[in-house]
């Protein structure tokens, strides 16, 4: 019997000019990215966050909206997030230099007002859906860049769960994992034996969408699933009809999963963003909003909420383990050796490459951008 050599099975070419390595494509910073939950930033406090290795400090003054600065004092590079908030300024913990929401240095305690140094970079900020967003790219594009629709956070007919797991992998693994529903075998212990049925796809310049239905092959419905969607009848081996449609969409850089019933009514709405934390973008902070339609029975959603939380967490832990194993395999090989055959995922990978930034073309960092001019803000705001 002839044996197959490793060379015959390794059909994925090494990355090159015509085969870019997806894991070396940075997220495009010219979008609104969540970096923290609103509840985590208290009045008169700071919060240190990051985007792709760029340190950012969020500041919530006692009055007014949140603002964001580059989290390093230009004097000795000490994090401004270690400082104190006074009015509309944050004051460095080391020598007391004060910076306003415009980034200008408005006070150095031991210098005259005519000798103040330049300030620090600012980031456009928006707060919505219980999240704080920053625009880490070109600030001139912030106002013209569409802000994402955040599930059903403003709809009283739905109850929304927050989640923000950190995963040790490149953000593109997260997009692939959710888009490809053929991986339900991974979740057989939580969901029983179910089969994904591909119903079709749509795609455009900045999005890819796939639709599925699920057929139960064996095993009982999990309690949380049954409470949300209703009990699926045991058809004793017959093919289950389409009862819910699952639509997954990557609209760069966000991802959504929406479930509708057979009448087209929305049952569940998930919105997720995958934010790179480190410079190499191999550590990802996920932010998710999961909105569930409230049942007609009052307060039933509150009763099932703990079970839903346990169920979704178990599913996520299985996904987390598998994508981190994928990242470990990439680290070991030094390049992307994936053998992809599913057309939807192939289109997704092309989208992520097209919309992202190759690592040999790094986005502008805080140090490369000009500092704000010497202040025009009054020192009385300190």
Automatic annotation (TrEMBL):
| EC number(s) stated in the UniProt entry for this protein | 1.14.14.-
Q: Which UniProt keywords apply?
A: 2Fe-2S, Iron, Iron-sulfur, Metal-binding, Monooxygenase, Oxidoreductase
Record bears the keyword Iron: yes
Broad enzyme group? oxidoreductase
MF GO annotations: 2 iron, 2 sulfur cluster binding; metal ion binding; monooxygenase activity
Question: Which Pfam families does the UniProt record give?
Answer: Rieske, VanA_C
Region annotated Disordered, chain positions: 362-382
Q: Which InterPro entries match?
A: Cholesterol_7-desaturase, Rieske_2Fe-2S, Rieske_2Fe-2S_sf, VanA_C_cat
- Record carries keyword Oxidoreductase: yes
Q: Which CDD domains match?
A: Rieske_RO_Alpha_N
Which residues are in the Rieske domain? 32-134
Q: Which PROSITE patterns match?
A: RIESKE (PS51296)
Question: This protein is called what?
Answer: Toluene-4-sulfonate monooxygenase system iron-sulfur subunit TsaM1
Q: What organism is the protein native to?
A: Komagataeibacter europaeus (Gluconacetobacter europaeus)
Gene (name only): tsaM11
